[in-house]
Specification:
Elements lengths: L3 E3 L5 H11 L8 H11 L3 E5 L5 E10 L6 H5 L10 E9 L8 H15 L4 E6 L4 H5 L4 E5 L10 E6 L1
Helix pairs in contact: 1-2
Length: 162
Amino acid sequence: MGDIRHALPGDLDVLTTIEAASYPPAEGASKKSIRERLAHFSDCFWLLETEEKEVTAFINGMLTNKTELTDEMYDHPELHRENGRWLMIFSVVTHPRYRGQGYASRVMERVIEDMRGQKRSGIVLTCKEGLLPFYARFGFVNEGISASTHGDVTWYQMRLTF
């Protein structure tokens, strides 16, 4: 399946392509947003590559001491706090060509392992109703409908507490 690594500035185009293929325009991060996130917290991007070095899936988010994922976090990477207790996940995405093969699960397992190892408090994300069972498999607990209005859809907040 390849290796998991953190993002580099040269990954911008492939990350933008996978993000755009995974979310409608109102929900996905723009190239500008991904560029700014990379500049502020590239170590909060986990990328899974094939043995041929093709990125197949990635997860990104930011660290904070806040306990709720808010819409302002998506577009304000300067809110990232290196010593934050909580990881707020923004994207869990797989290149369309590689979906259904467990790649996103493998990356999520690594993110959880890393956050536990760093003695963080836990991980928060929002997802659509259809993905609740996917995240529950990792131990995330559904906290109900999120206050988020990102992309004008209904989001559910999920939390994994360590």
